[in-house]
Model the fold of this input.
Amino acid sequence: MTGIGVGPELINLDHVVAGYTHHPVLTDVTFHVHEDQFTGIVGPSGAGKTTLLRLLLGTLKPMSGAIAKDPKVRMAYVPQLETVSWNFPITVSECVLMSRKSTKQLPWASKAEKASVGNVLERLGIAELAQRHIRELSGGQQQRMFLARALLRQPQIMLLDEPTSGVDVSTRHDVLHLLADLHEEGVAIVLTTHDLNGMAAHLPHLVCVNQGIVASGTPADVMTPDVLEQTFGARMEVLEHLGMRIVVDEGPHRSAMRETG
Amino acid sequence: MDTLLEPLQYAFFQKGLFVASLSGALLGFIGVYIVLRGMSYIGHGLSHSIFGGFAAAQLFAANFYMLGAGLWGIASALAITSVTKRSRLGADAAIGVITTASFALGVALFAKFGTSGPSFENALFGSILGISPQQIAGLIAVSLLTGAFVFLRYRALLFSTFDPDVAAVSGVNVSRIEAILMVVLSLAILATLTVIGVTLVAAMLVIPAVIARMLTDSFGRMLTYSTIIGTLCGLTGMYLSYYAGVPSGTMIVLVGAALFVIVLAFTGSRGLRRSAGLDAHTDASALAPAAR
Done:
């Protein structure tokens, strides 16, 4: 699997314009999510990364353009950690259980559902935290809990909003490995990130966003000074180390020095 | 013991005790969702809004004024939700405008035309003595409806309260759940209006749930504790109301406030930590596009 996406299409955005209260944040976006896709959406704050994610999720309707999605596709969403109240009175297993697919709406979970929760928590390495209150978790553990909740749905597409924001290096590596494993198992993955070196450079496919799609391709294709300047509005230097792209922020002093020769 | 038994010889007190306890239980139960969703202000506003409907409905549909007031309350609740979602007006501003205007209309109607039903003061501060058998039946029906709604939609309610965005992606119809919750809240306020009073209903939606939150970190236990605390407030408040000769709603709320202080003293910083941020996870913030 390349991650760039050549398999059947699951979601299609065709010339979409989207935003909030009549102000477009994204214009003329054409974007496809394939069955075997593993894509990172990168861009500065306010560029429209989360808006693009919300369009894919179906929680935001486009102002114009068309979105086609198979209604039977199982989707899971991992939001940013700051979007929930961590003081909410639930334990880790109760939080994961929320996403159970059961058609029964009874308050209590079945034995099979509890076993499934145990399995995903085990996979994420947080089985021993199952009965802890969610406030007692570290940032990395909170992210693993959200991933466990998403995994419980056995998704075909997993959409993640800044999954490595606020977590330590070790957790970031674990999250990357888990996502790579899921991709190998056939789960399409689309995530947003502002972390160019820690996250984006490790992904097989990137989409650069700033009010629209600026560029799309492998890190080698899009992590170039010109594309990054067009996306982030600032000149960046790109180095290569062991076949990987490393982005260095030139900063105002270096930019000024370069301009004056 | 005589203090407890003596008032029970009166039929009006037996009826009042039952109604006050059930009202406390109902408000304590539904209050958990209101408090955890940061909707306390909506509860406050809705009770005032329903007062306007209460006054208007008595003028135009004297025999069906509870129905009229209920429809008015439901319409107000749905209007607040709609205005907040469709416009840039914040939820607190929408509640402030819609509900206070409705309350002012109610006061104006009472002042101009008077009323043939429960008096102005009874509607404001509550009076169990004036409650009719139909209203008791209504309170029981609303309590059963609320219990059934929470039982049958437990997961959807919990999920959409904790994380509405992910709940929506996971197949929960968040808008419908929120709309039904608003309708149930309106009915609960309406059913307890003549017991607790317009001005104090909001307090009973909040106090038992906050006390329960201070006592536990479990959602299921919070629901149970809040219902029990609401019942105890109704029960004790009724006795104190009888002996002190003050409106029942006032004493029920004062018992709740006293219980809050006692629990705060016992739980200390742990209780404060648990209840911290209950108003920060607001419904309005969930509606606004926080990130792009």
Remarks:
- The helical segments of chain A are 49-57, 92-97, 111-123, 139-151, 169-184, 219-222, 225-232, 251-260.
- Chain A is about 30% helix and 30% strand.
- Chain A has two domains: 1-73+159-218, 79-155.
